[in-house]
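Let us work through a complete example step by step.
Step 1: write down the sequence.
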Amino acid sequence: IFISSAYELIIDRKILLLKKSIKGGEQLNEEEITLEIDAKNQIIFPENLHFEINELGKVNWKLEADKIKLPLRIRHQKDGDLFHPMGMVGKKKIAKFFKDEKIPIFTQQKIWLLCDGNNQVLGVLPFRQDRRFAKSNESSKIIKVKL
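Step 2: predict the structure and record it as tokens.
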């Protein structure tokens, strides 16, 4: 099969899809991106960062800076990733979280995880943050995540 470079071939289970490729810097394709924090302790996201789920504007997380090792990064899911979602008891694998939220497999591959320098998942953008790193009443220094 010959496919033009303007298209990418995606095989998912028993489905074969042909999808138009995004070229020219419209979307970030890196596996991991290091983030900066501005003077107001807000995370600076790259302008061309693409979110598959249109939930922008709904993320307003406050993280306890003392519990987080810098630098902060965003990356896609890896096997065995765990987090402790806000509003849920216990820990959950990211893959199980996606399944419970009924997120399609193609979309799962495009969802970003916010991680710290120890590679701990701080949240699934733009769904849930990890409650272990959420701002508490005793927090003196916080980092704000807004989308």
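Step 3: interpret the result. Residues 1-28 have pLDDT under 50 and may be disordered.
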